[in-house]
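User: Run a structure prediction on this.
Assistant: Running it now.
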Amino acid sequence: MEHQQNPGQSIPLPFMKMHGLGNDFVVIDSRRTGVLPEAATVTAIANRHCGVGFDQLAVILPGENADARLVFFNSDGSLSAACGNATRCVARFLMDETGASALRLATDHAVLLAEDAGGRLTRVNMGAPVLDWAGIPLAEDADTLHLPIPGDPVATGMGNPHMTFFVPDAAAVDLERFGLEHEHHPLYPQRANVEVVQVVSSDEITLRIWERGTGITLASGSCSCAAVVAAARRGLTGRRVRVNVPGGMLEIDWREDGVWMTGPTAHVFDGVWRG
């Protein structure tokens, strides 16, 4: 469904600031207007010194065959089809607003089911992982369980493309250099989200994250899902795993009906962007 973009920045733009484990978002509720911000507005808001700052920006739109539709932007103004922690934040906002305990949220990736997990935790089914090279997508046919890239990473699609590396010590990786280098690998025509994983046990991993179009983040839902799918496919963990990220802990459960992600959310403040 196409939506009108805001032709200028002169109209005040109300927003909410939210985060999931430090993975922070600006959320714009456009259910009444159906308007999306221009890329220039997105990048201006993203500036952490002169704007508001965020890892991703989420726009809530009216839903068709769903409770709402979500559109995600990276901090560089590019679109993303999936953002797990932002989906959980918006789901919590909408559940608090309506009193519902479950919601269906449409994204460019899929219609996602969100649930109240109790204790102010929110659970989202991120859908089935994409494991074939064309669907991720990769630029050419390759073994997604063992990519022909130094470090032997795994490729996974979670509505966005992922490249997962397993290392002895995640903290020792120069992620600023490593992430930027691999985000733009020629095997990934749409760029890659890069995960560096240290396996702690069969049900626990430590994860560091480089998100395409954003950089290093404290947490990422889709990256956490991709990391667990990759670890389970390699036989390094089971399918239900605690994921330790710099911002805290998520629980990922790869079930028959999709990859479920459970964790906390926070609604930090409301504001108005005046451009």
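The chain has two domains: 13-124+263-273, 154-256.
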